[in-house]
Amino acid sequence: MTSLKGKVALVAGGTRGAGRGIAMELGAAGATVYVTGRTTRNQLSEYVRKETIEETADLVNELGGTGIAVQVDHLIPDQVQSLIEKIEREQGRLDILVNDIWGGENLIEWDIPVWEHSLEKGMRMLRLAIDTHIITSHYALPLLIKNKGGLVVEVTDGTEEYNKNRYRVSLFYDLAKSSVIRMAKALAHELSPYDCTAVAVSPGWMRSEIMLEVFGVTEENWKDAAEKEPHFVISETPRYIGRAISAIAKDPDKKRLNGESFSSGELAKMYHFHDLDGSQPEAFRYLAEVQEAGKPANAEGYR
């Protein structure tokens, strides 16, 4: 394995959650990381949350990388085109594209059939999950394919194996997350002649800023959330998926993964890395074998 010093990454959707964890780990490996999102220190997005792209860039810098924050709405083609022109002008290359744009948590109506689900919210969810990724790839990939060994990561929820026989929350959410997995397969085909790789990667039950707030805990006392949800014992930090993607990016033989989908836990076993606490959570195996099987919460053997 080699470090990522000299490599240029774009983490599209890096304000918080998985995107922030990914940007931090790419930075820790020495990469120059462009962090995009809509929330800055001067302007809030529809989330109305405190996390900003500048904070993420600062965290990249603290870990030894170079973090560059750029405000971008990835639904606006002109903004994405300008972003890529900026990266080419400043760096002359792009080695890693992480499509992590999402922003749909507040639009989900859980277990509601399509005829009752808000059509406006559902269609907005699809635009945020799918259109943003396509627009970003359209403008970014001509720069990425100029050099061999480029990597595209489509961040989603659930692996292809886990999602294929399960209903994921609602038709809209199901379609959004499954489409991203399929997108990685299509990109793998289109990138293959250029010796570049595309994969889909999913975190497990991630302790994002939003999730910690839902359970009224912090990263320091997250285990207290078991009082509300015992199965939270399988949760992982956003840095875990970051380490997964960093490991793929460092792999000189990553082309063998082209078109496949993985969880952070699966990649931890493959590349022998751990979460911040030294564990290796395997969330989707746990969900299938413990939670969905109706067994009591117990992460022994799953982390």
From TrEMBL:
Pfam families: adh_short. Transmembrane segments: none annotated. InterPro entries: NAD(P)-bd_dom_sf, SDR_fam. This is Short chain dehydrogenase. It comes from Cytobacillus firmus DS1. The lineage of its organism: Bacteria, Bacillati, Bacillota, Bacilli, Bacillales.
